[in-house]
Design a protein that fits this description.
Layout: E1 2-7, H1 14-23, E2 27-32, E3 43-46, H2 68-76, E4 81-84, H3 86-93, E5 100-102, E6 110-118, E7 134-141, E8 145-147, H4 150-158, E9 162-166, E10 178-182, E11 188-191, H5 218-230
Parallel strand pairs: 1-2, 1-3, 3-4, 4-11
Antiparallel strand pairs: 5-8, 6-7, 6-9, 9-10, 10-11
């Protein structure tokens, strides 16, 4: 598959996302926030970073970037989109996913190897996981606390929109330990931790497997091929 990664001013994990896509066996296509051309990609990644310097709110200006009109049109037509950290914030600000993301409840930027548990594997980006599977991937954010009103939380839970929850510790005060969400169609996933930083042995989380660890994030990207076969 041909997978695009959009670079916004302030993106800093776009290169890592491009590498993860290549390691998963796909063709990586860089895209620019000021363009109106998705260049025929089969899927998209909105990467982590601090788009537009996080002015107003993280993701708020990026959600209005020129290329987002094409992104929104693609989403409506079933294009698989993965928003990672700042990309998750962009999808929230664009109204693609329900709820919001605010400052961590402890008021500090956090970075840690984060344990997650898979909740919903029926998406273009999570088909390679098993429900209930535990994974460990890096987390790094200052505004990762998931919030929503009571009715929205009930809808998120009732519709099975939670894809991953924080395990062992809730690092930022997210309601219901929510670490990632999907849309109802299953083509869009937003995730606060960073799977693109856990795609090569020895370069991912410091788990008990030591230098054999670091591959838990790769499944997000290889799942695209599984989704293509399933369709």
């Amino acid at each position: 598959m041909r997978v695009g990664v959009i670079t916004f001013p302030g993106s800093l994990d776009d290169g890592d996302a491009l590498r993860a896509i290549r390691l998963a066996g796909h063709t990586a296509q860089p895209l620019w926030h000021g363009s109106h051309d998705l260049e025929g990609v089969d899927a998209l990644v909105l990467p982590g970073g601090f788009s537009y310097g996080d002015y107003l709110r993280p993701g708020a200006i990026a959600a209005k970037a020129p290329i987002m009109s094409e992104v929104m049109d693609g989403i409506s037509k079933g294009l698989p989109v993965l928003g990672i950290c700042n990309g998750f914030q962009i999808l929230m600000e664009a109204g693609v996913l329900p709820g919001g993301l605010i400052r961590n409840d402890h008021g500090q930027f956090i970075r840690r190897d984060q344990s997650l548990v898979a909740e919903n594997t029926d998406t273009a980006w999570t088909r390679g996981f098993q429900s209930g599977q535990h994974i460990t991937i890096p987390l790094k954010n200052g505004d990762g606390g998931y919030i929503a009103d009571r009715d929205t939380i009930a809808r998120v839970e009732d519709d099975g929109l939670v894809v991953f929850r924080y395990n062992l510790v809730n690092p930022n005060g997210s309601l219901h330990d929510i670490a990632g969400l999907r849309n109802k169609a299953g083509n869009v996933v937003g995730l606060m931790p960073h799977p693109e930083h856990a795609v090569e042995p020895g370069f991912g989380p410091d788990t008990v497997d030591a230098m054999r660890s670091g591959l838990d994030g790769l499944t997000f990207f290889t799942s695209l091929g599984l989704a293509e076969v399933a369709s």
